[in-house]
């Protein structure tokens, strides 16, 4: 069969219709031309104005220099006049004032001054404030003192004047003569007549300017005073200013220094007027461009009639696909480019339909396990609750979380962890009923939705699922034992909406994990407890940085010598928000948040730092620190302990690390490896809470431990005739037979102490001797205890 796509095409074809593209190109070209002309015109105008502004600045320099020179010569003539000098020398003030006035009028001066040698005003023609005149003229007098004469700008009565100052000699200096021209409207208009631009004399005033004189109209002058951009021009930047509907290019430069302030000459070139010829050219180009676009539109309509119909079919097909219809295909007629496009479009439609089906499945299911996802499960739960509400039935949510899954991921890798999750999903899928929903919420959390189940039935189903996972998994020649914590919440007893029911089942699961039970039903008040835990976890991240942790120390007494042999370092946490938080509460939170590693290292470091001088002084022989389950899978812990021992100068035999039976049994192989590495360094190891775990004697024998601590639950009631004495006796005998030291913790009464002595227990620890104490209090207690024992 001949492929139709390869047959020669008949008719005009799509290439003939490409003319539409050229029409669009024409429009683009017109727009680009208009933009280029506009940019070039504005650039040319600005360059021309920039040149004019620079030339105008030079003109001002020449005008200012000529004015200063003229003033200097005129005032010198006055100062050299014999009659004027005689009047000044003889303090004939009326004659001097008349001479000063006549001379000022003759040279068209705006102000004339006769100043005493110390600068005091003797005669003032023009300025009214003599004190302000003295301050304003002081810089010019200082310059004249140094150079014999001076010219510059001074502010007299809040107005700027170009002043010339010379001494009056008779034959010594008897006074200063000064005349000046006002930097005012007349000078600004004269300067504008020369350069053809508006002129403004300004003085900087923070974010705005102070206008001293202006050739601008009143409206523009008022707008200039309030324009923040004008202040930038005073700082030396060329800026554009919009003043009351007119646009100006502004350029400012210094007129002269005056009394620590500066008068600026601001030149304003009218941009609107300069651009007017170019705006007319732009309008002409716009008319031509509009005509060209009109012609192009007519051609586009004519050409588009030939291709509108097939393109419309493609548009209809696209809308149909957008609406979700992937079954109807486009008819294919002819062998031109549009026919090829229709064929490709049909193929694309099929692929989109298949891909959307896959996306819909992936959006509602987990990629790894194929189970429904959290979003899908939440939707099903909402519908189930609504149905249960209408029918007056119950429904229950089970949230299952795997214990130690993070340790499996860290120790064996994520690929192995994914295989474990897949195996768990397969087992749960086989164990749930057909009407139940099994979903993966994320990570190692799974959800089971039970329709028509009360709390008792839900707990029974949860225990069945927990037993399903107890059988070890064998993957890649590795056997892994798993346990799960399951939280249960029931509608309507615990919540009447899906989100709250799910959250409370999740809270129950975390409570089950913390209490080390398999299944736990949500209880009223757990919300507040959960919120407290969330708050504590947030504060825990900053507790080390804020130094909120502290150590207290409880002594261990050797029964044979009645000496304090070891001391156990115990961690305490005090927060401003919650006060004192017990280790039983915050240690599990630290393990869940991943903070336990940093906290353990802090405790090891701080305990060695505190105990080092006690050990060196012979007060104690060693210090004990507790480890968590996660510490035993920390491969870097032995190296860290070795570094801290060297840093604090403490022998490794003086450090005792205590681990619980439950801690060791969570990952026996990893724990055994870490403990052997610590033992090789000489660190002593102790099994804490002995008797409460699930270890066998064979497993205990394989661990490199030096001592065991009998749990306080067996010691507290030892003197009350309970059966705990049998357990304690057996534990002591087992420890001694294995060559281990035996310590009893929780000793609170003399009767219990007497029994432990009779059973040859090695060491004891408890409130009978001392509560956990701060460092200073422990030293005082220990010194006092040793003295009492020596006296006894």
UniProtKB/TrEMBL annotation:
It comes from the Bacteria. Residues 393-524 form the GGDEF domain. InterPro entries: Cyclic-di-GMP_PDE-like, dCache_3, EAL_dom, EAL_sf, GGDEF_dom, HAMP_dom, Nucleotide_cyclase, Rev_trsase/Diguanyl_cyclase. The keyword Repeat does not apply. Residues 305-357 form the HAMP domain. The keyword Transmembrane helix applies. Keywords: Membrane, Transmembrane, Transmembrane helix. Residues 533-786 form the EAL domain. The chain crosses the membrane at residues 20-41, 285-304. SUPFAM superfamilies: EAL domain-like, HAMP domain-like, Nucleotide cyclase. NCBIfam families: GGDEF. This is EAL domain-containing protein.
